[in-house]
Amino acid sequence: MSAPNRSRRRLGALVVTSSLIVSGLAVALAAAPADAASTDVVITEVYGGGGNTGAPYTNDFIELTNNGTAPVDVSGWSVQYASAAGSTWQVTNLTGSIAPGAAYLVQEGAGAGNGQPMPAPDATGSILMSATAGKVALVTTQTALSCGTTACHNAPEVKDFVGYGSTASDSETSPAPGLSNTTSATRKVPTQDADNNAAEFAAVNPSPKTLTSTPPDPDPVDAKIHDIQGAAHLSPLNGKPVKNVTGVVTAKSTNGFWFQDPQPDSDPATSEGVFVFTSSAPTVAVGDALSVQGTVAEFRPGGSGGTDNLTTTEITNPTITVTGTAAVPAPTIVGQGGRVPPSTVIDDDSNGDVETTSTAFDPASDGLDFWESLEGMWLGIDQPEVTGPTSSFRELSVVPAGSSVRTVRGGILLQKTDSNPERVLLDDVLTPIPDAKTGDKLAGVVSGVLDYSFGNFKFLPTQTPTVIDGGVTRETTKRSSPLQVSVATFNVENLDPSDGDAKFDGLAQAVVKNLAAPDILGLEEVQDNDGATNSGTTSANLTLDMLVAAIQKAGGPKYAYRQIDPVNNAEGGEPGGNIRVAFMYRTDKPVKFVDRAGGGSTVPTTITTDRFGRPHLSSSPGRVDPANPAWAATRVPLAGEFTWHGQSLFVVVNHFSSKGGDDPLWGRTQPPVQVTAPKRHQQAQSVRGFVDQILAKDKGANVIVLGDLNDFDWSETADILVGSGKTSLIDMPRTLPVKERYSYVFEGNSQILDQILISRNLQPASTYDVVHMNAEFPDQISDHDPQVVQVIPLPSWVH
Q1: Which of 18, 72, 219, 226 is spaced 20 to 30 Å from 343 by Cα?
Q2: Contact assessment for residue 520 and residue 591, using Cβ atoms and an 8 Å cutoff
Q3: For the whole model, what pTM was predicted?
């Protein structure tokens, strides 16, 4: 999903009635009143969405507060939970004492692991509570309740009781609102208990407190929006109640609105806009002038690891007063003539968590601080330029005019020292985002509010932009000369028969037209015959047969293929898909595959020599170093021995480990940690060692290493593969002008992930091309651009 996960749904209340039979006579009665309201310990918060998608915290929890004037010993007490319609109660025992005015936190079960860690709890259980509807009781014993489904709130041992969600069969008077992964049932006034869950609880952002938590300031303070936002990533008023916050509504969502102070301060580091979280559809209108009272909160959205996200500043539990109407402020322009974003640095002031380690807040030089200083504001970008295609999440990367370094086709290039902080993602939270491709522009001033979710700052337009075609078209490569053998790499993105004819026909057109039917084709992401169905099948003959047939149908030549089935479910990728790499080669050209038996999924191919001392593969096709731990849960490389006009050519096709799990560029950890990089370094060392074995037998051997390396041309992974000295390989992307070095576009950043490396003797007669036909377009047949190198293999004695 691309939209912030702020979906909080309020459900209607359900009033439960009961009947009693007295002396044989049936008498219908209204629900019995609850016991007298507690004068000391009460339940102040219930949260059941912990760890789920979008959850701000990893665990469910129940919070208690002592409203009395003396400490209360809760040893021997418990909190208990039952499902909305259930009568079976799960128990978490309590210990210790709660001082007057203090909170007591009971941590319960965890979901899928999303969200930030909980504060240290005062008691711990493992109950998995419903995120939407259920029942919670504070009980003065540690024996599970046995009071049925509707009468537990009146049980004598029940100190306090909360039913939440309209389907809760028991509650005090009527249930509290239904909840979600991102909302808790929170007592509106912690010091009051009137035994009415519906009236006393609201669905708001979770805010667990403990015995050691600092109690909130009970007196709201007058504040301006820029006071709330402050010149920092966290609000200086976080957790504090505020009042008389004035501004004009600029945009609305389904659960809140943004408003902005039309009288800004003189400090560009403090935002003048903020989001007001109403949990349900707001009743205000754009252009309303407001005064707001509520509590300042930092909301950490889910996605991209959850805890790695920055927070957004909000006002929660608001009381809203419409004071009139006013003109929406003119949008603050981002780019030339307005606020110009930094051009190279995302953050250089932190060493870890930016919220705790940053030594400066510097919007003029740090992109992370620049966009933070505009959070929640009404912004405009004049004719933004598109740097990547509209994604399946309906996100579109744009930059203000004049940004650099741009690619030859209008993208923006990710470099070792430039992560392009001027880049921002348009998102479809408030209006549809149109299809656009790299090199397009959007007409006029695109206006919207700035938000953050899923590891990125998000620009949320309120009107669908108009696309101006930039004229970028899909590339085709030149055909090789009769002396050259053309060798290509192509990630076909989880290809299997269930993808249907359209996918296979599209790939076939790409091979025949855009790649000019290369002689040898290294494929990545070929799946087994039943794709993601986890059947134990590992064979991919149907997948490859369908591609061979589709190429012929598209007017191309007949291809043959070679591959080795992987160990079932052992090499990563989509579960059940048994992803692997493979070779295809033309049968109508002088290229020949040298078949040599003995290869297998766990059998390494080694280097042998013939009677003339020339190197050969012990098995062809053969797997490279499959027992190396570097290939655990990863596609094992495939080596093939070919001949071209009788000259030997060794090709190794690879698909290294992905970057999944690395810190996002725009996350709270700066600089981002690439936790996946060491494994790719090990994989590169494994492949480099295999190449060295070939070149040790014949330093003039013709060798090509290619595939989806999941790393950049300037990475250590590429350096390891290149090697040094007379046996170093030529990394072909590095031979291109900088503005042409890309094969993939991620969140608007053009970058190299796919590479071809060749032995030095092949370079003099070589030509190389990254064929830009996928990565820049929203209608992709694959998310990677293929590449092709054309070389002339010569006998080793020539070199």
Answers
A1: 226
A2: yes
A3: 0.79
